[in-house]
Every structure is written in structure tokens, then in C-alpha cells.
Design brief:
Number of strands: 14
GO molecular function: carbohydrate binding
Largest sheet: 5 strands, antiparallel
CATH superfamily of the largest domain: Galactose-binding domain-like
CATH class of the largest domain: Mainly Beta
Radius of gyration: 21 Å
InterPro entries: CBM6 (IPR005084), Cellulose-bd_IV (IPR006584), Galactose-bd-like_sf (IPR008979), Glyco_hydro_beta-prop_sf (IPR023296), Glycosyl_Hydrlase_43_Enz (IPR052176)
Protein name: CBM6 domain-containing protein
Strand order of the largest sheet: 5-8-13-10-11
Number of helices: 0
Order of helices and strands: EEEEEEEEEEEEEE
Number of domains: 2
Strand content: 35-45%
Keywords: Carbohydrate metabolism, Signal
Organism: Clonostachys rhizophaga
Distance between the termini: 77 Å
Shape: globular
């Protein structure tokens, strides 16, 4: 890697995962990034026959996704492939949470497999002000809207409640966008974790017997 990506340095380190070597580094590519406001990136490493490392090029997409993400288990809100505006902090519930959420900020989660279809979405949220909403969109910031979850004021930035909303037409493999909406110039709410629920599987019951029994 022969450049620093507008962040003075790139501080690379190599990690092997499932038999593939990856180079983790940082740059200033995220909106608002620069010399001291840097973001973690990753690229796959490949080797020449003599054992030397092939030159790594910085990219916005990174390596191919290893497997799709299961939305039907609980995920931290900082599960992110791309974002705008938001920051992380230590949560009063013992993990991390997303904060500094303002109108039109967003989080992208790549390669989410909804299977036969999602029925509902739940989010763990808190707001010392009036809250806002989370738009759930597929494949683009302005993509198909499959649900909107309302976030109320909860009385404190670490006073969390779980909110839920119904989902329509979310099935198959998609990139998922959390698009945050609200009024005013102040932070809207904090976001700790999320989880989707699938439609229950249908069980067919067959009655054995003769017609007319």
C-alpha cells in the first residue's frame, strides 16, 4: 500500500481469518474524515510465488462478503458497512451505542438475508429530547421503504426502550439502510441494538382417513 488515504498514515496490520489473510488499516474516506478523524478499512491480501505480498489498493468496497448476515438474531447498531454522520460511545447497557444521530444520517448493512420474509423489526433506543424515526430501506438510501419505526422521547440519552414496527415486502438478499429522520438541529436519539422477526413457518397438517370420515 503506497498511500495514506488522506489520513497522514495507514497503520496496517495483517490478520488471518478462515484461511485468508486480510490487511486492516485506516484512512479518511468517510464523510468528515481527515488527518486525525480516521476510519478502519480492510482489504484481502494475496501473495506472489516467491512469498512477497502483492501491492494492496485502497477501495471503498473492500473484500467480498464471506457470508450473508442473519437479521433474525440481535445485532449491535454499530454493525456497519458504511455510514454518515453518526458516532459510537460506551452505552449504559454495557456495550456500545450509536449517538450523534441527526436528520438524514444513515447506516448501511451489507448483504442481509431476509429469507422468506420479515414480519417485524425491533430497536433499542433512547432520547433525552423528542426522538425521531428509523426508516428501513432496501438496496439504496432512497430504496424500497419496508418499514418505519418511531422513536419516542425516553427522558434520557441512556434511558433505553425497545420499539417495534411491522414490515412489508422484505424478503431475499438485500443491502439494508437505516435512514434516521427527525426535526431540529440537535441530536435525535441513541441506537443500541436491533433485531428482525420472521414470519412463523407454516406447518401443514394432514388428516389420514377416508373421504367422509
Amino acid at each position: 500500500m503506497d498511500r495514506e488515504g488522506s489520513a497522514f498514515t495507514n497503520h496496517g496490520g495483517i490478520i488471518q481469518f478462515q484461511g485468508q489473510d486480510y490487511l486492516f488499516y485506516h484512512n479518511g474516506a468517510v464523510p468528515g474524515g481527515g488527518g486525525f478523524t480516521r476510519s478502519v478499512c480492510v482489504e484481502a491480501l494475496f501473495y506472489n510465488e516467491d512469498g512477497t505480498i502483492q501491492q494492496v489498493q485502497m477501495s471503498r468496497s473492500g473484500p467480498a462478503q464471506i457470508r450473508s448476515l442473519d437479521p433474525y438474531i440481535q445485532h449491535e447498531a454499530e454493525t456497519i458497512s458504511w455510514s454518515q454522520g453518526i458516532e459510537t460511545e460506551v452505552s449504559g447497557e454495557g456495550t456500545l451505542n450509536i449517538w450523534s444521530i441527526n436528520n438524514d444520517d444513515y447506516i448501511k448493512v451489507q448483504g442481509v438475508e431476509f429469507g422468506a420474509g420479515a414480519a417485524s423489526f425491533s430497536a433499542r433506543v433512547a432520547s433525552a429530547l423528542n426522538g425521531g424515526s428509523i426508516e428501513l430501506r432496501l438496496d439504496a438510501l432512497t430504496g424500497q421503504l419496508v418499514g418505519t419505526c418511531i422513536v419516542p422521547g425516553t427522558g434520557g440519552w441512556q434511558t433505553y426502550v425497545t420499539v417495534s414496527c411491522d414490515i412489508t415486502n422484505a424478503s431475499g438478499l438485500h443491502d439494508l439502510y437505516f435512514v434516521f429522520k427527525g426535526e431540529g438541529s440537535m441530536d435525535l436519539f441513541n441506537f443500541n441494538w436491533w433485531c428482525w422477526k420472521a414470519f412463523p413457518k407454516r406447518t401443514l397438517v394432514y388428516k389420514i382417513g377416508c373421504k367422509g370420515d
